[in-house]
Specification:
Layout: H1 19-34, H2 39-45, H3 50-60
Length: about 70
């Protein structure tokens, strides 16, 4: 296994978000979600998995909406 830290050509590897960077990204993702963006849309726009996007939203302190959107 390589220790160079570089992804293989064609790989979908994404480095882990840690520390200050994770806190900063969580705050931004939480703000997007609070403004009405969906988890899947946030994940796709930021090249994150659905689970990572959801975890970051929860870490930001934002409350998750129920499934299915608004019930006007």
């Amino acid at each position: 296994m390589s220790t160079s830290g570089k992804a293989r050509l064609g790989s979908r590897y994404r480095p882990r978000l840690r520390g200050e960077e994770r806190t900063r990204v969580a705050a931004a993702v939480g703000a997007e979600y609070a403004a009405g963006a969906g988890i899947r849309a946030i994940a796709e726009a930021r090249d994150l998995s659905y689970g990572t996007a959801r975890a970051l939203i929860l870490e930001s302190g934002a409350a998750l909406r129920g499934p299915g959107g608004s019930k006007r």
